[in-house]
Amino acid sequence: MNISPVNNLLLSTTPSAVEGFEPPTLTFSSWVEEKIAQTNDQLNAADKALTELASGHAENLHQTMITLEQAKLSFQYLEQIRNRLMTAYQELLREQI
Q1: Domain ranges of the chain
Q2: Alpha carbon distance 86, 64 (integer Å)
Q3: Which of these, 69, 74, 70, 46, lies nearest to 58 by C-alpha position?
Q4: Where are the alpha helices (DSSP H) in 1-97?
């Protein structure tokens, strides 16, 4: 009786063996870095808009307020991501080995 090894069976079902499979190009860490950069850009734009408003050079108060709210929401979103990551990390630390 010939017994085939399990490793050969598992290799045929790995994602690299599936036709047309392409690994994701965006990893979680690069996604987080991208969101941090976007939030930073929005906060800088809001700071610039606020400076222009304070100096009297802002032409459109409505657009300035929209820019400020977008930056605020983006920061709150990023803060919630951080909170969820910290909660997940703390849960991992509490795991019994």
Answers
A1: 28-94
A2: 33
A3: 46
A4: 6-11, 28-55, 61-94
DSSP helix/strand/coil, 87: helix
pLDDT for 21-70, tens place per residue?
677 778 889 999 999 999 999 999 999 999 999 999 888 899 999 999 99
DSSP 16: G
User: CB-based contacts of 72: which residues, under 8 Å, 6+ apart?
Assistant: 46
- Geometric angle at alpha carbon 80, from 43 and 94, rounded to 5°: 140
Cα 54 to chain centroid distance, Å, stands at 33
Measured distance CA(56)–CA(49) in Å, rounded: 11
Three-state secondary-structure class, residue 85: helix
What does the pLDDT read at residue 79?
A: 96
44, 30, 28: which is closest to 84 by C-alpha? 28
8/47 Cα distance (integer angstroms): 59
